[in-house]
Each structure stands twice: as structure tokens, then as C-alpha cells.
Specification:
InterPro entries: CheY-like_superfamily, LytR-like, LytTR_DNA-bd_dom, Sig_transdc_resp-reg_receiver. With about 240 residues, the chain is an alpha/beta fold. It has two domains: about 5-120, Response regulator (Rossmann fold, 3-Layer(aba) Sandwich); about 140-240, Beta Barrel (OB fold (Dihydrolipoamide Acetyltransferase, E2P)), CATH 2.40.50. About 30% of the residues lie in helices and about 30% in strands. The protein contains seven helices and 15 strands. It has helices at about 10-25, 35-45, 65-70, 85-90, 105-120, 180-185, 230-240; strands at about 5-10, 30-35, 50-55, 75-80, 95-100, 135-140, 145-150, 155-160, 160-165, 175, 190, 195-200, 205-210, 215-220, 225. The strands form four sheets. It has a five-stranded parallel β-sheet, sandwiched between helices. α1 links the parallel β1 and β2.
Length: about 240
């Protein structure tokens, strides 16, 4: 199976270096390249690649801004000429980073990680409207950034015009409305509990009967979510309760 890759990098020299490395691997197929964030966004929307080689430090908009623009983020390997950016990108849960100029040995190591992650993903990125459990989203809240797999998120919650995302012990804000988020989520595992909250049913630990026909859900992360009366009937049917 071919691994479809795109390069988003403002340096022509760096793009050419990556292309020469990609040519050495039959399993890699370069489906496009872009020299800036806006062109990169259009390219990714068109090609839905498996793998993104992304320069962090670009003029006008940087690599992190591109990830914020995407509803679904491909497997990402950052490229950078600056050590401080490389260290940061590691903290942001990128699969890997490559310091420019990229060595053949280091490229091969990154590709091994890509193959391992793809092997663990049951579903490839697609042009479908809905995300899958294995889809990644990018979240930037202040100076902190994360690449998060949809299946690792336990719940979403309205905070003004934004949405709080719950995963592990983190609760950052995503700069999209809850309705925008809901449109993309896989319906088999995510459920709109009330106007303010969407929960991942895989993270429900206990269901408690509540007042006026409502339910209260106790989540594995310790959070409690009250399901509206109307949604409680739907939830019971969905979960065969």
C-alpha cells in the first residue's frame, strides 16, 4: 500500500531534499507540494494525504496555523532548521521531527514511525464528512498545542463561542463552536447529552437515573454529565438500556 505524502515547506531547497529522500522509497508517493500555508491547506483538502511533512517556521503563517485550519490532521512529521522549534514540536505530539538538512538515516527512522502508526490505524483518512476514531485534530490553547486522536477525547463542552475538549488530564479550548464539532464526530461513539455537552459513550463509567426522567452519566475521568430528558430517552435506546 502506498503512503501518500505532501510537503508544505517555503524553502525550495528543503522541498527538493525531501523529494529526493522520498524517491528512495517505493512505498512513498508524493502527491503534492506547497510553499506556504494557504496553498498547503488547499492541497491537503484536495488530496487527503496519509502523511504531511510540515515546516514549522514559515513567513506570514506558520505550520501550527495550518494544523489549526484543518478539521482532520494527517500523520505529521515536522521539519525545521531550529533546535528550539524541534523540541517544541515534540511536546506538541507530532509523530516526529526532522532537523534540516535531513539525513537519510534520520528520514528512515521517521518513516518507520509513520508505518507503525498507519499499521495501528484501521481506517485511512478519507473525503468523508465524518471523522473516525483514529482521525487526529489539532488544538492550540495559548502556548500549548496538541495533536489528539478523536477516540481519546471523552467529552466536549460549550464555553462561550468556543468548545472545551476533555482528554487525559487536559481541558484546552478549541476555537470552534460545539455545533461545528458535532457535525464531524462519528455518531457511533459520540452523543449530544444536552445543549452544552457531547460525550464519548466509550468513556461512560456509570449511568444513574435522575430527576424527571433524566439520566446522570459518570465519566471515567470523574466528570458528571446530566442528560436532558429528551436526550435521555434517545440515550437509553442507543445504549439498549
Amino acid at each position: 500500500m502506498k503512503i501518500r505524502a505532501v510537503i508544505v515547506e517555503d524553502s525550495r531547497l528543503a522541498r527538493n531534499e525531501l523529494k529526493e529522500l522520498i524517491k528512495k522509497y517505493d512505498e512513498l508517493e508524493l502527491v503534492g507540494e506547497a510553499e506556504n500555508v494557504d496553498n498547503g491547506y488547499d492541497l491537503i483538502q484536495k488530496e487527503t494525504p496519509d502523511l504531511l511533512f510540515l515546516d514549522i517556521n514559515m513567513p506570514e503563517k506558520d505550520g501550527f496555523e495550518l494544523l489549526e485550519m484543518l478539521d482532520e490532521v494527517p500523520i505529521t512529521v515536522f521539519t525545521t532548521a531550529f533546535d528550539e522549534y524541534a523540541i517544541k514540536s515534540f511536546e506538541y505530539n507530532a509523530l516526529d521531527y526532522l532537523l534540516k538538512p535531513v539525513s537519510e538515516k534520520r528520514f528512515a527512522m521517521a518513516l518507520d514511525k509513520v508505518k507503525a502508526q498507519l499499521a495501528g490505524n484501521k481506517e485511512k483518512p478519507s473525503k468523508a464528512k465524518k471523522l473516525s476514531e483514529n482521525s487526529q485534530i489539532f488544538i492550540k490553547d495559548g502556548e500549548s498545542c496538541w495533536l489528539v486522536r478523536i477516540g481519546e477525547i471523552s467529552q466536549f463542552e460549550i464555553v462561550g463561542n468556543y468548545t472545551r475538549v476533555f482528554f487525559e488530564d487536559k481541558k484546552p479550548l478549541l476555537y470552534k463552536s460545539l455545533n461545528q464539532v458535532e457535525e464531524k464526530l462519528p455518531e457511533e461513539s459520540f452523543f449530544r447529552a444536552n445543549r452544552q455537552q457531547i460525550i464519548n459513550t466509550n468513556y461512560v463509567e456509570n449511568v444513574v437515573p435522575w430527576f424527571n426522567g433524566k439520566l446522570k452519566l459518570k465519566m471515567k475521568n470523574g466528570e458528571e454529565v446530566e442528560v436532558s430528558r429528551r436526550q435521555s430517552y434517545i440515550f437509553k435506546d442507543k445504549m439498549s438500556l
